[in-house]
Amino acid sequence: MSDCLLAVNQINVTLGRGQASVRALSNVSLAFPVGAVTLIMGPSGSGKTTLLSVLGCLLKPQDGAVLVNGEDVTASTEDELTRIRREQIGFVFQSFRLFNSLTALENVMLAMELSGEKGPEVRAKAESWLKDVGISSKKHLKPTEMSGGEKQRVAIARALMRDPKIILADEPTASLDSQAGELITGILHDIAEVQQRTVVIVSHDERLRVFAKNVVELRDGRVAERPS
User: Fold this and answer.
1) pLDDT per residue as tens digits for the range 192-228
2) Given a cut of 80, is residue 114 above it in pLDDT?
3) Roughly what angle, to the nearest 10 degrees, separates helices 148-159 and 104-113?
4) What is the rounded distance in angstroms from the CA atom of residue 55 to the CA atom of residue 204?
5) Which of 3.50.50.60, 3.40.50.300, 3.40.50.150, 3.30.460.10 is the CATH number of 4-225?
6) Could you count the other beta carbons within 10 Å of the beta carbon of residue 38?
7) Which runs of E-coded beta strand occur in 48-197?
8) CA pair distance 226, 177, nearest whole angstrom
């Protein structure tokens, strides 16, 4: 795991209580390498979203360890986990989660402005990331004026604003047509290999397999197929 910024070791997650409880993850151990896309697949209810929530420090396992940059964060306080998410992890969602009242540029800048960081340096950084994902010409448009693929590129730029080494993407192509989905996947692939980040994608989209160095299959909360 020495070349991994993100790993889980023997984690167990049970959701709900009493008779309504469900074992969402059972003894899952995985390491996610730097410079590669890892694709997590499986049917609905297999534990994909739960695993992504654990990796993103949004959900604590009952047992096992979550390692971020070599540090076991399982026992971290909520304040510490918030700092880890803010500084080390970027999130990309299926639904984009952009503010329709803001322009593309303003949406990207918001990632830093919420922490009180403002000014020309923040604007320049946002413009640079929009350029990197190929959408700088649309920076003054609002989300309602953009296609799904364009909105997802804005969301990726926002996720990169704090220069996180870990990017977690939840069904990033699910609401896109095939051409836009391929473009977004190519961008995430380049973020991993060219920029040397750890990229983890949860998806049902079989087309993403060709972009992934590692594919993890989950079945009933367990790893059914180890990364290749």
Assistant:
1) 999 999 999 999 888 889 889 999 999 999 998 554 4
2) no
3) 20
4) 18
5) 3.40.50.300
6) 22
7) 63-68, 71-72, 89-93, 166-170
8) 30
Task: Provide CB contacts within 8 A for 130, sequence distance 6+.
Answer: 104, 105, 108, 136, 138, 139, 153, 154, 157
Domain layout of the chain by residue ranges: 4-225
What is the Rg, in whole angstroms, of the alpha carbon atoms belonging to the chain?
Answer: 17
CA dihedral 148, 152, 153, 156 (to 10 degrees): 180
What is the average pLDDT across 74-100? 92
User: Residue 206 CB: number of other CB atoms within 10 A?
Assistant: 9
pLDDT at position 44, please? Answer: 87
* Phi/psi of residue 157, nearest 5 degrees: -60, -40
CB-neighbour burial class of residue 164 (10 A; exposed 0-12, middle 13-18, buried 19+): buried
Predicted confidence band of residue 94 (pLDDT cuts 50, 70, 90) = confident
pLDDT reading at 132 higher than 80: yes
149-160 pLDDT, tens digit each: 999 999 999 999
Encoding tokens for residue 21? 């409880």
Residue showing tokens 């080494």:
165
